[in-house]
């Protein structure tokens, strides 16, 4: 199975030169550490930072420089700091090319549930509802099943929705999947993971792509523009 870092490395392969990218709280923040060499990507944090860099070394640590999850981060050359009103104006205005979000559930209709479990204390909605409505592309990073072994890839989400019909790509520790025609399409499987295991842990309809392949974790490297 993939580690959290390997999942982030695979997501980073979807970045494109010149992208404005928002990384959600949790696993998605790791993507900032794997931007391909020579690629110019501007990471946006909803608390008011455009130009977020990788996590700091001890020497770079600044307790006042944080992301939306209150983790310390760095700022790249050309970064800008502003208030959350301006940040959400960027998001709601459709100026974010890609957002990477965590999720509790995703279903075959492209719905996402990421903010509430009835009867349990969770962090809440945050900016996720704005992001799923404003971003051009969304990738979900999530575990394939719960700690109890229950699938999180469903025919229909059981938890309150964050957004409807907005998800097309999902990565888990087992696989890279796309959602097409009310079906999870298996495009890539993690090294050492069988298609049978993925099928057994996917509650929603699953189709194996004709060109399915083992996931390659080598980051894309592009020349600087």
UniProtKB/TrEMBL annotation:
Top-rank taxon of the source lineage equals Bacteria
Q: Name one Pfam family in it.
A: CoA_trans
Coiled-coil stretches: none
Please give the Gene Ontology molecular function terms for this protein: transferase activity
Q: Which SMART domains match?
A: CoA_trans
Write down the SUPFAM superfamilies for this protein, in alphabetical order: NagB/RpiA/CoA transferase-like
Q: Does the entry feature the keyword Ubl conjugation, yes or no?
A: no
Entry keyword DNA damage: no
InterPro entries reported in the protein's UniProt record = 3-oxoacid_CoA-transf_B, CoA_trans_fam_I, NagB/RpiA_transferase-like
What are the entry keywords?
A: Transferase
Q: Which family does it belong to?
A: Belongs to the 3-oxoacid CoA-transferase subunit B family.
**PANTHER family cross-referenced by the UniProt entry:** KETOACID-COENZYME A TRANSFERASE, SUCCINYL-COA:3-KETOACID COENZYME A TRANSFERASE SUBUNIT B-RELATED
Q: What is this protein called?
A: CoA transferase subunit B
Provide the organism lineage as a comma list: Bacteria, Pseudomonadati, Pseudomonadota, Gammaproteobacteria, Enterobacterales
